[in-house]
User: Fold this.
Amino acid sequence: MKFTDLFLLSIRMFTAKTSRTLLTVLGMSIGIGAILFLVSLGYGLQKTLLERITTSDSLLTLDVTESKSGIVSINNAMIEDIKQSQGVEEVSPAFQLTSQGRIGDISADLISIGVQPSFLKLGGFRITKGESLSDNNPEGVIITSSVAQVFGKNSAEEMLGEEISFSFFMPQAGGEEVKENDLQNNFSKLDLDKKFKIVGTIDGEDNVVYINSIALGDLKMDKFSQIKVKCNSQQTMGVVRDSILGQGLIVSSLSDTVDQANQIFRIVQIVLMLFGVIALAVSAIGMFNTMTITLLERTEEIGIMKSIGASDAGVSMMFIMESTIMGFLGGVSGVLIGLLGGEIFNQLINFVALRFGGQSVRLFYSPLWFIMSIIIFAAVVGFLTGFIPARRASKMDPLDALRYK
Assistant:
């Protein structure tokens, strides 16, 4: 038989047994939809989390800090030495100072961190409101959301455009030999005669203010608490890391955390997929039952086909093509069900989140390769469920088939 003849015979089930065929396809759709819904939830949670904690630059960045022993300090000379290292593209230092911030008549103890504008980008910080630090506006500062609460504001957004001034507590030389609680001898207070303007906010639980280090040039800092070292590529990160570790510093990277998170999410996705596979297995059993009933109903027809010259392979192919088409249609409709269900669920979650003052998120994400794979998988399941009935049909004796009632 020609391929077109086999195809036309295979799609007769949509007109001859419409209800049963549609219910079989629907059963397969629910199984495929369950897999897509659950796995897309895993991908979506992974994508949402990583987008919030990383940027493309931060994945190539090493975080360098001093060791607890304090034998090796991060100073300008060491920073210049790291800049000259092979594989290093950019170095962005930061120094931390205890300070007191004043807005109007309100004062609060804050942690001030002097940074270059690139520090926030390399660290994966995301500006929630306003804009980031810029050399064109060196008096602009970034605050965490917790700072707003200290100054009696409901949200950090309300503080955008506010002017703030600082008093810094500068460590004195030899202060480490004085008792820790002897703050008067350890630190000297420096009132900076300069007004700063809050230009942006980031999420954070600590009372931290990020200040452009250019605006703090008068402090002449030569000791830094940490530096961000951006590498040329993932391949050079290991060499740069070993070089910095050899200088007695502590090195970590956000990419290590991301790798660990990805491993956890892979396990989560596998577990979620197993739940969907259970639903798919039930659907496959239903499809197998449908194909078995179809075989019994067409026994006499198979006898006639074989009597007039139909080959065993042609009869077998007719059943396999029929089950594969049902599996394919079940996969396509299952993808639509899964995507629609995910969209509805996501809208409901965002509606509740916004009502309680939260932020909207995208909980579901379906890569194109996964959608195509799941459709192919559904077709393969259809093929497998039709294989045994097709084999039985091909081995059937024409005379026995004609006598079957």
Remarks:
- Confidence is low (pLDDT under 50) at residues 175-180.
- Residues 254-297 form the longest helix (44 residues).
- The chain has two domains: 3-54+260-403, 67-248.
